[in-house]
Every structure is written in structure tokens, then in C-alpha cells.
UniProtKB/TrEMBL annotation, chain A:
Pfam families: Fer2, Fer2_2
Molecular function per GO: anaerobic carbon-monoxide dehydrogenase activity
SUPFAM superfamilies (UniProt xref): 2Fe-2S ferredoxin-like, CO dehydrogenase ISP C-domain like
CDD domains (alphabetical): fer2
Name of this chain's protein: Carbon-monoxide dehydrogenase small subunit
The EC number(s) this enzyme carries: 1.2.7.4
Cited InterPro entries: 2Fe-2S-bd, 2Fe-2S-bd_dom_sf, 2Fe-2S_ferredoxin-like_sf, 2Fe-2S_ferredoxin-type, 2Fe2S_fd_BS, Beta-grasp_dom_sf, Diverse_Oxidoreductases
Keyword Transcription: no
TrEMBL record, chain B:
UniProt-listed PANTHER family: XANTHINE DEHYDROGENASE SUBUNIT C-RELATED (PTHR42659:SF2)
Pfam families: CO_deh_flav_C, FAD_binding_5
Record-given protein name: Carbon-monoxide dehydrogenase medium subunit
Protein transport is among the record's keywords: no
TM stretches of this protein: none
PROSITE patterns registered for this protein in UniProt: FAD_PCMH
UniProt-listed Enzyme Commission number(s): 1.2.7.4
Organism: Caulobacter ginsengisoli
Length: 161, 287
């Protein structure tokens, strides 16, 4: 089977790689590009551990094929911290202890950032519904939600300051 | 699965050829890729329809709406005009999976996956939506309810795929609604669903109605007795009681971990009532 040559932007940088035609974008990110932040939890779009942004849309990278990434702008958890500084969501996850094993954390962070980018002031209910596709099997959701709400408040303050 | 061939044609003609040669149609891939990976479908070349001309976007034409078959469900909810015209269709589409899935899953995929519990299908059938099916013989327009013939089965022939979903023009005082019941608040499959579309006259009397149930039979089912129950009447408890009975009559559900035959049948009646009541109220506000 011939591999396909794929060009895309990942976290702002142009990348090129070869992938099997039926390879998932998640496997390409992890195995071809060495970006192992996105995880395979279920492989069926239920758990959200593989969440990434494609052209500013939140998707499960396990349900997208690598050739579909051609020409797209992709953002992964690896692009969230900037200039050595954690994103406020990442800091608040630490402060609120919103993780234990950490397997779901990259997906939750990417999904939470997607929410706050389009809705800086979500209600708790909106946040819970938005994150319903991100499963955590150890911490539970309460600390995660508190961390996201706290980060949202901080980002709003920073924005208005 | 990584050994599968992937092909993303740009034209209807190329898509028809690739599908005719044994390819599997994919739009969002949120069902197809899961089934291929789980081995529930025999492997075959994947034909991605998202780049085919006409499969993307939402537009108005001659008073009706045309939704490209591969348009992600999230875009329906973000389209103010479509939400205003067909709130029930948008409600159904909006219930397909998580935020992540919403950005990929499409109406045609939800339809052609042919699950009895597909959330967008009852509202589409209630709305009298049609599909433009493209294939080796050209294009044909068929009602949405003619596509799914059984669990996992469609009437699409070799090389055929759904290119567009069409919603008809709205008369005044018309509105729709969709409701489903699941055991939790999010991320589950319908125990039962009900789509309702209703047209009222100037006096607020029901002129026309269609109610369609999901997840209570191998395919979505039209409530045959809905017209007799509601047309010519105002919204009152007696009318809803008649509808409830008419809805329960058409249910042929299975028992599984989400609900028994008895529960599904009862809840289908309740959902039918509530969906009609919501559609009715919406229609009155358009008077």
C-alpha cells in the first residue's frame, strides 16, 4: 500500500509526513510526528482523550484519517503552553488538582480551551455539557469543572485589565 | 485499518465511480471508522465525500433549505436562519454525540448508518425532508423515510450516495420539535425519540401534523394515527391523550439495557405528546 505525503500546520509550524492511507490522525501525530500528548482511550469517539483542534474545530483525532489533515491547521496540547509559560487552564488544573493519572488531561485541556475561546463566560451547565465527551476515570469531574471556571474568570480579568 | 485505501474525490462523478467499485462512503467518519476498526464491517476502500462539490454547507432555495450531506452537525446549530425555520431538525442533529462528534458527524451519515436510534432521522421525516441521491443513473429525489430499510440497511444501490438533504418551504404558523429520552443527561443512545412537525390555521386549529418515533422499531416510524388524533382540533389534554395512544400503537421496540419494551412504548407516547406540545407552541408564536 502506498503511503501518502501530507502537509499541514501543527501548532503553527509547517509539517510534512508520510502516512498509511487508513492511518488515524491520532496515530500519525503520535508515531510520525512524535506528539504523544493526545491519547487513545477508546478509539471510538467516546472518551475525548485524543481531542485536538482542526481548523479551529474540536475533534477526536482517533476518528479522523491522517490524509484528511492535508492543508489543515492543527492544534494539539503541545502548543498550549507558550514561551515556557503554562496556559491559565493548565495552571488551574494543577492548582485545583484536577487530575490524577493524567491520561484524560490533554484532551480535557484542549476541549476546555476550545470552549473558552468561543465563550469566555460559560455557565457551569454549559461547561459540563461541552466537556461531556471527555471522560475521566479517576479524578471525576468536579475539580475539572472548578478549574475551568476559575481559569475562565482569570482569563476574563486579564482580558479586561 | 491503516492498510485501507483512502480516496477523496472532488466531483460527484468520481465519487460514484469509487463507490461503485466497492468503496465505503464516509463523511464525518464517526460511525464508519469505529465500525471498520471493530471489524463490524468488512474492510474496503474509504471514499471521503467531504470534498465532493455540493456536500458542504447550508443554503436557502425557493423558500426551502438545502443542507450538504456531509455538513457537520455543529454548523446546523450555528446557522441562525436554519434554527429559526427548523428548530426540531436542528435539535435532532444537535443531539448526535459530544462536542467533538458534532464537529464531524453529518445528517447523511446519521441517516445512512441506519441505526434505529439515529437522533436526526425522526425530525427529518416529520419535516418531510428529502434526499438527493447521486448514483450511476444520475440523480433522484427520495423522501428521507425511503432510505433506511432495516437495522444497518439502506435502499441505496451500488455507487449511490446522499448528496443533499432538502427541507421544504414553511407555510405560516408551522413549527417542529424533537425530543429524546436517554438514561443519563448526555452521551448516550436514545431509548426513544419523537419528532413532530405541525401546521396551524389562523384560529390555532391543527391543519396538518406528522409525528415520527425513533428507537422503538427497526427503523424510524411515522405515527399513522397522528392526523386523526390532532387535525381539526386545538391543543388540549384529550388531543394529546389520543396522540399518546396512536404513538404507542406503532411501537415495536426491543428490550435492552436501556429500557424494556413496555418502558420504551410508554415513553414514546410521552415524548410524542411533549414534542407536539413544543411544536404547537412554536407554531402559535409564528402566527
Amino acid at each position: 500500500m502506498s503511503k501518502v505525503h501530507i502537509r499541514a500546520r501543527v501548532n503553527g509550524d509547517p509539517v510534512e509526513f508520510l502516512a498509511e492511507q487508513g492511518m488515524t490522525l491520532l496515530d500519525a501525530l503520535r508515531d510520525e510526528l512524535g506528539l504523544t500528548g493526545a491519547k487513545e482511550g477508546c478509539g471510538s469517539g467516546d472518551c475525548g482523550a485524543c481531542s485536538i483542534m482542526v481548523d479551529e474545530r474540536l475533534v477526536c483525532s482517533c476518528l479522523m484519517l491522517a490524509p484528511e489533515a492535508e492543508g489543515r491547521r492543527i492544534e494539539t496540547i503541545e502548543g498550549m503552553a507558550r514561551d515556557g509559560g503554562l496556559h491559565p487552564l493548565q495552571r488551574k488544573f494543577l492548582e485545583h488538582a484536577a487530575l490524577q493519572c493524567g491520561f484524560c488531561t490533554p484532551g480535557l485541556l484542549v476541549a476546555a480551551k476550545a470552549l473558552l475561546d468561543q465563550n469566555p463566560d460559560p455557565t457551569e451547565t454549559e461547561t459540563r455539557f461541552w466537556l461531556a465527551g471527555n471522560l475521566c476515570r479517576c479524578t471525576g469531574y468536579d475539580k475539572v469543572i472548578r478549574a475551568v471556571m476559575d481559569a475562565a474568570a482569570e482569563l476574563r480579568q486579564a482580558h479586561s485589565a | 485499518m491503516s492498510q485501507l485505501q483512502y480516496y477523496a474525490p472532488g466531483s460527484v462523478e468520481d465519487a460514484v465511480k469509487a463507490l461503485g467499485a466497492g468503496g465505503r462512503a464516509m463523511s464525518g467518519g464517526t460511525d464508519l471508522l469505529v465500525q471498520l476498526r471493530a471489524g463490524r464491517l468488512p474492510p474496503g476502500p474509504i471514499v471521503d465525500l467531504k470534498n465532493v462539490a455540493g456536500t458542504q454547507g447550508i443554503r436557502q432555495e425557493n423558500g426551502g433549505w438545502i443542507i450538504g450531506a456531509a455538513t457537520p452537525a455543529a454548523l446546523l446549530g450555528e446557522h441562525a436562519g436554519l434554527v429559526a425555520a427548523w428548530p426540531g431538525v436542528v435539535e435532532g442533529a444537535g443531539l448526535i454525540g459530544s462536542t467533538q462528534i458534532q464537529n464531524r458527524a453529518s445528517l447523511a451519515g446519521n441517516l445512512c448508518n441506519a441505526s434505529p436510534a439515529a437522533d436526526s432521522v425522526p425530525a427529518l421525516i416529520a419535516a418531510r425532508a428529502t434526499c438527493i441521491v447521486a448514483g450511476p443513473g444520475g440523480r433522484r429525489e427520495v423522501p428521507v423515510q425511503a432510505i433506511v430499510t432495516g437495522v444497518g440497511k439502506t435502499s441505496l444501490g451500488p455507487g449511490e450516495f446522499v448528496l443533499e438533504i432538502r427541507l421544504p418551504p414553511r407555510p405560516p404558523r408551522a413549527a417542529d420539535a424533537y425530543l429524546r429520552a436517554i438514561p443519563r443527561t448526555e452521551m448516550d443512545i436514545a431509548v426513544a425519540g419523537a419528532g413532530a412537525d405541525i401546521v396551524l390555521d389562523e384560529a390555532g386549529v391543527c391543519q396538518d401534523v406528522r409525528v415520527v418515533l425513533g428507537a422503538v422499531a427497526p427503523t424510524a416510524v411515522i405515527v399513522a394515527g397522528a392526523s386523526a388524533a390532532l387535525v381539526g382540533f386545538r391543543l388540549d389534554e384529550a388531543a394529546l391523550e389520543r396522540l399518546d395512544s396512536a404513538a404507542q400503537v406503532v411501537c415495536r421496540p426491543i428490550s435492552d439495557k436501556r429500557g424494556t419494551v413496555e418502558y420504551r412504548t410508554r415513553i414514546a407516547g410521552v415524548l410524542a405528546r411533549r414534542a407536539v406540545a413544543i411544536a404547537w407552541e412554536r407554531a402559535e408564536k409564528r402566527a
